[in-house]
Amino acid sequence: MNASTSALNALASQPASEPVLRVEKLQTRLFLKGGILPAVEDVSFSINPGDTLGIVGESGCGKSMTALSIMRLLPRPVGRITGGSINIGGVGDITKLSDRQMKTIRGNDVSMMFQEPMTSLNPVFRVGFQIREAIRVHQKVSRAEARNRAIEMLRLVRIPLPEERYRNFPHQMSGGMRQRVMIAMALACRPKVMLADEPTTALDVTIQAQILKLMNQLREEVGTSIILITHDLGVIAKMVQRSLFIYAGTVVEEADVVSLFARPLHPYTQGLLNSIPRVEGGDNQKKRLNTIKGTVPNLSKLPRGCRFSDRCAMVHSPCLTAEPPLAPPDQTTEPNRKVRCWLHVKAPA
Questions:
Q1: Which of 81, 201, 327, 347 is deepest in the core (most CB within 10 A)?
Q2: Are the C-beta atoms of residues 272 and 56 closer than 8 Å to each other?
Q3: In what order do the strands lie in the sheet with 242-247?
Q4: How far apart are CA 51 and CA 312, in angstroms?
Q5: In order of start, what are the domains of the chain with their CATH numbers?
Q6: What pTM did the predictor assign?
């Protein structure tokens, strides 16, 4: 039995309905000299074994900060989880663990693939050494066994001649191959969940497609659940089953991808989907691209009431006085759908 089969069997032994990761009412603050910023506010979601979840939003909306909170890698000393829980199957609430205990969780249970390989990989060490040491840090194996596993991981991510590439430095590889090395490193210890932060941003469209296809194949082979953090709605449509739309640090809509694209409910979600360029209508038809007015608010100066109220075309009086809860919409039969908007949940009297 190979390592991939063992990982799949281990995941298959868990109840199908039991999430491998459950985040509940997560609250993260940045304690700066100018004040306390609510970087993440009341974020809740869960992901089941082998699933892919998307986290979507503009730059500065809190996507990466949510991921860093899950990894317990917030910038120090300013970043701090101040509320909520992060439960990993078989581990429990990791917000209660010490830094030393978290070292055994990262890599083994949850891992992260960062946005830019050239800043994440150390330029002075060979890529094989970096994968090997990641394995040895998290698992008690010999140097020879870690080396063999690193080469096997390079083979698993479809890097040709893995024994030779093991000795390459990052600058000797293309952008696509460096990204494959990052995937290999993130999956080296067969974690339950992998967070991928904008994994295709710096790649051309052909390599993007290859990396996304590879991630899907590895999810099926290894059984790792994936949390995909991106602003690219095309990637979301292709890769995920469910998605969260985050705005100013809080979830504004959650649903399966088919429902979201067919009938977005929150004005922010509608604005993002409407801003995608369309090709229908012929080349001669010139239409102005839809945009969302304004910018993401400064977290120290959030609007009163709904955080999206100063950019929303459908704002009305309740939006200016109280922030709506994230709740099932009033008029829908879609299961497990939630939205944070007074247009769809009952406003206070």
A1: 81
A2: yes
A3: 110-113, 193-197, 225-230, 52-56, 242-247, 250-256, 338-339
A4: 32
A5: 3-240 (3.40.50.300), 264-349 (no CATH)
A6: 0.88
